[in-house]
Amino acid sequence: MTVSEVQPQQCDLLIEAGYVVPVEPHAVVLEDHAVAVSNGVIVAVLPRAEARARFSARQVVSRPEAALIPGLVNAHTHNPMTLLRGVADDLPLMTWLREHIWPVEAAVIGPEFVADGTTLAIAEMLRGGTTCANENYFFADVQAAVYKKHGFRALVGSVIIDFPSAWAKTDDEYFARATELHDTWRDDALIGTAFAPHAPYTVSDANFERVRMLSDQLDSRVHLHTHETAQEITDSIALHGQRPLARLDRLGLVNERLIAVHMTQLTEAEIHLCGERGVSVVHCPESNLKLASGFCPACALVKAGVNLAIGTDGCASNNDLDMFSENRTAAILAKAVANDATALDAATTLRASTLGGARALGFGDRIGSIEVGKQADLACVDLSALETQPLHHVLSQLVYAAGRHQVSDVWIAGKPKLVQRQLVDMDIAAITANARQWRDRIRTIRA
Fold it and tell me: Structure pTM?
């Protein structure tokens, strides 16, 4: 049989792009390539001409002036807090939390608030090329259901905190809800679960020990704010006689399942400990800058072998879910902190916000890079705009010049979620109107 007689292979989707940025291998850009998808899984990455000869696709999407990248992974979010965007700006962390955010939350938190805020966040993230989030908020069961409804990938953390809330009143109730969440979603293709003890200053040793025991038993991630501010370190030494990371290590939590968020206050020894133990660190540069919390030593962490991820934090402190902006800030800030213009280059930054995030969440075998066998969580970024011309270097343009408004198409597990800037099966007008009614309710509460 001649080559011309070979029958084309069937696939569901063939995405042709001017540039495919697989992330793995590192810093590679494949020009004029295509990605073939079947049953939500990437089955081939190959030159466009070869793809057309080899595959007969049910749908072909051609984006000759776009870069196709893995869907971005927002590795630290409180997405229901989109409804608190701009409620209390220009304040230090503890004033912001204790005098503004926590009182408002106490008045509004419930299933309706969480569902509506999560829906708004999903729409915003999809329009910015984000296909996966690491969630940390109350009513985790509601969040998981909303993410699933919209076909959005998420690791949903069940909050553990030492005071009662609308979600749970006692320690036992917090843990019962966390294990129930795990049991409900343990085999789901899109939704994973984690334990989310809030922070060292709001969780007791006893509750941390319960988290560690269950994390070990269930092989679950532990998603935790820590070493966020200098005051946190001072208070920990005064109360426990140890810095927070040393305390967590004493309690058995410094390991490959720990997702340590913020980490702005680190010694050299702590950085190397994280590298040795396989800890993932989530860098939230814009939230940390806005709250004047400090600077995460991202470059030093990467050099020490730490898996670095990037997150936006919640919209109450950022104030958006824009991972393109976060990437640019992370890369530029790292250079100033390290006093090294080569620190956290474009390729390393994009890796942190894709494969780094996926690995932090325990999803690295499924998403985060464009490789055969992985889920087709993908985003197309149109680089033809004036703002990204002339195009000398694709990776540099993606990190330092492109914006989320240039994301044209998004897929999760091969299913279209954004098509030429239009959301699929999400009503923007209704979502916007709903956000406005929450604004009016919150204004009334704060009056």
Answer: 0.97
